[in-house]
What does this fold into?
Amino acid sequence: MSPGNGFNPMLWNCDRQGCFNLKKRPKIEMFADCLPGRIAFSDIDAVTEICGNLLFLEWKEHQGICKGQEILFKQMTRLGPASVLIIEGNAELMTVESLRFVWNGKISPPEPADLDVLRRQITGWKDWALKNPARLRKQELPCN
It folds into this structure.
């Protein structure tokens, strides 16, 4: 993989530059009083766009997402051309135990998976997105 094909590794060096979470992660909790009730901002691990379709990745070390993320993911996928892959595994080691797909307001049950299965799911989504440009502002999409 090379920069020409979208390869985009994180270049931060914690030993040299300090803890990324402390140095670079926005402290989104500072905006808690700007939103009503228990609503809060959520961080998303990765997102991409192809032909107006969005794919979000959310990595969890444990089974399950919090209720707030469940509501967010269901609403995002219900309101627009968005899908979410919930990956359960170890992000440091890039091991995958299971995957769940969120689409059209529904979350699938976890299915056993590994890194190869995740890569095939992402590739399958890419193939689908290229063949199914989002309907909103279709004339503006680069893949028409």
Observations:
- The two ends are 27 Å apart (CA to CA).
- Residues 115-131 form the longest helix (17 residues).
- The longest strand covers residues 82-90.
